[in-house]
Amino acid sequence: QVQLVESGGGLVQAGGSLRLSCAASGRAFSTYAMGWFRQAPGKEREFVTAITWTAGNTYYADSVKGRFTISRDNAKNTVDLQMNSLKPEDTAVYYCAATKKYYAFEYVGHYDYWGQGTQVTVSS
Hints:
Layout lengths: L2 E5 L2 E4 L4 E8 L7 E7 L6 E6 L6 E3 L7 E6 L4 E6 L8 E8 L13 E2 L3 E6 L1
Parallel strand pairs: 2-11
Antiparallel strand pairs: 1-3, 3-8, 4-5, 4-9, 5-6, 7-8, 9-10, 9-11
């Protein structure tokens, strides 16, 4: 069992930066791949980025590539999302999630555990 709690959301102007953090409970954190997803009002939850167990591989949606960076610290049971050059279209609730799968990280259904989400609002 893994419990996830996100933090770090808020209101920022376009072009600004935010850093989200996800704290995980459970001794097996290092055995899970971790992902970040987001959901805007009236839209489906969409993949943002993922990182494998040992942080050897990272994956990004095209819409955030070059602007967002995912990282993890298995000793601290945390996974962070650094978001730079934010745009109004990045406005959404951001969720972190954990999966035991080792492929197709962009699929919502592949994740076993989810956090409650944190709101990110980017003003123009």
